[in-house]
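Project outcomes to date are best conveyed with an example. Our students and postdoctoral researchers have been running inverse folding experiments weekly, and each run begins with a structure described purely in tokens. The record below, which covers 551 residues, was selected by the lab manager from last quarter's runs and is presented without edits.
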């Protein structure tokens, strides 16, 4: 058969693939949605059940192979990649907390150097500019607003030039800091008014933290479990939530604050405030293009407190779907052209005990105990008077400041074989090994463990030893309610893979087979908004921005 006939038959019998409708030529509003700890596994598990906002976004351009490609799979590093286009190695945000290598002081990612105080927060540790910064440079009339349940999420999305940056602070409500953005009456007034009204409404009618019972689709997951030495019933509402809204001043009580963030009420409350901000600032109706970034945090708190395989997370998936649906409906009502992107700061895995029940090999690891044993071994072996390593988090150790070079070298040399012999440990690397790795270019799923570490390595802030525990490990030994039973932070793909979704009115559904990274979001949205972007680690996604990528 001739090549001509083969080509003709292929044309006749191959179904047409619809091209996505291009984004608005001149959007008035760019909306970035982050869902904390919204792993690709959760997206895949529940997407057939979504009926609200997540269903609509899934009918846009949905990258099934989305990645936070680095190793530091935590909230602050993950959020720092979304609107900067840079990996944590470029943003300088290597973890939620790191140690000052000279003093050993713990540094929170949005703390402000020389400015103590639990509510003094800002982007001073962020070494990159964000999409919002690019927009403000291009046109000061463009406005940038960010809102979250977490300070670090709101600030990382905002950057250095935002018009308003808000986050929830326990016992106060939504606040800002003059070092995070303007703290003028025009910014603080609406938050104060919302907070006062919220407390008044809660006093009049105490809110339900959870539905009265598990929806039918979640009921089968409502089973008791023991995580570490902590047991919980698994039912909805959780037994620990009972009675925490009793009394007129319940909102200020430690019991309520312990429950609120990890409840089905938290994200809808963030959405209530977002609705007020959209209305009060007339977002989408300014002289330029506005950027609204909203990070919903409850999925992360629920995942830590209950794991992601139970009825609690099943309920939360319905809540976040409905909450994002509310946001999209609000955007529809503005009557302006808009574009939405959604992703997550990291993934997660379920509690090891339930994973094992479900046939997934997993184990619970006392990481602090491992480090304690390592230090004890080295103190004895090297005749040291103090621990040579300081524990920063489960995956990163720092040499104690003040160690002389010979002792530091001996400690590193002795620690490597000791850690590699531990059954809980899959991989160990030194800072010298990671620093020598070239910054990777290529498919994120193929990155080696050292390459994943390299993308989140900063020589001034990163540690000295990098530990990868076995896949599906749950770190820590929960003993009471409030302790974390599951989490994230590993180099493994279940923590790195996240959904990356784009949507605008009139879009044609597409599921590109190519991989995308969260660092691709900022240059893509910049192209759509006609904003010049500096050189970044990500690339403009032509499947989304089409010809705008070539400007």
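After processing, the design step wrote out the following sequence:
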């Amino acid at each position: 058969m001739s090549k001509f006939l083969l080509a003709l038959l292929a044309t006749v019998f191959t179904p047409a693939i619809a091209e996505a409708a291009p984004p608005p030529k001149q959007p008035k509003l760019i909306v970035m949605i982050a869902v904390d700890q919204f792993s690709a596994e959760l997206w895949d598990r529940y997407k057939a059940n979504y009926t609200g906002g997540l269903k609509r976004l899934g009918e846009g351009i949905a990258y099934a192979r989305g990645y936070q490609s680095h190793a530091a799979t935590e909230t602050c590093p993950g959020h720092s990649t979304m609107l900067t286009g840079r990996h944590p190695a470029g943003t300088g945000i290597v973890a939620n907390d790191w140690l000052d290598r000279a003093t050993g002081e713990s540094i929170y990612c949005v703390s402000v150097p020389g400015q103590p105080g639990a509510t003094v927060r800002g982007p001073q540790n962020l070494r990159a500019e964000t999409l919002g910064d690019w927009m403000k440079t291009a046109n000061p009339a463009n406005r940038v607003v960010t809102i979250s349940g977490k300070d670090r999420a709101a600030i990382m999305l905002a950057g250095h030039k935002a018009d308003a940056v808000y986050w929830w602070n326990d016992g106060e409500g939504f606040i800002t800091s003059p070092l995070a953005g303007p703290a003028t009456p025009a910014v603080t007034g609406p938050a104060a008014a919302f907070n006062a009204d919220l407390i008044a409404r809660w006093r009049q009618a105490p809110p339900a933290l959870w539905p009265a019972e598990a929806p039918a689709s979640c009921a089968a997951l409502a089973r008791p479990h023991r995580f570490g030495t902590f047991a919980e019933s698994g039912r909805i509402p959780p037994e620990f939530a009972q009675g925490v809204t009793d009394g007129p001043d319940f909102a200020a009580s430690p019991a309520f604050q312990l429950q609120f963030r990890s409840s089905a009420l938290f994200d809808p409350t963030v959405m209530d405030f977002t609705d007020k901000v959209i209305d009060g600032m007339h977002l989408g109706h300014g002289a330029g293009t506005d950027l609204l970034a909203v990070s919903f945090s409850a999925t992360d708190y629920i995942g830590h407190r209950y794991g992601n395989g139970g009825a609690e997370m099943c309920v939360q998936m319905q809540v976040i779907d409905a909450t994002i649906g509310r946001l999209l409906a609000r955007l529809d009502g503005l009557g302006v052209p808009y574009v939405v992107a959604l992703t997550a700061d990291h993934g997660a895995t379920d509690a090891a005990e339930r994973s094992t029940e479900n046939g997934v090999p997993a184990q619970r690891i006392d990481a602090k105990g491992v480090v304690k044993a390592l230090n004890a071994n080295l103190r004895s072996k090297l005749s040291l008077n103090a621990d040579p390593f300081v524990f920063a988090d489960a995956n990163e150790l720092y040499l104690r400041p003040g160690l002389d070079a010979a002792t530091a070298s001996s400690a590193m040399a002795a620690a490597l074989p000791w850690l590699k012999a531990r059954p809980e440990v899959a991989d160990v690397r030194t800072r010298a090994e990671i620093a020598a790795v070239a910054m990777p270019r290529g498919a994120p799923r193929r990155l080696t463990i050292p390459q994943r570490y390299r993308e989140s390595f900063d020589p001034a802030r990163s540690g000295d030893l990098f530990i990868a525990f076995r896949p599906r490990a749950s770190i820590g030994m929960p003993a009471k309610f409030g302790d974390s039973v599951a989490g994230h932070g590993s180099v493994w793909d279940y923590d790195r893979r996240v959904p990356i979704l784009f949507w605008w009115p009139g879009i044609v559904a597409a599921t590109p087979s190519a991989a995308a990274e969260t660092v691709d979001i900022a240059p893509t949205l910049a192209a759509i908004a006609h904003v010049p972007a500096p050189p970044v680690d990500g690339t403009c996604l032509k499947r989304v921005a089409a010809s705008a990528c070539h400007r």
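Confidence is low (pLDDT under 50) at residues 1-18. The two ends are 44 Å apart (CA to CA). The training component of this project remains on track.
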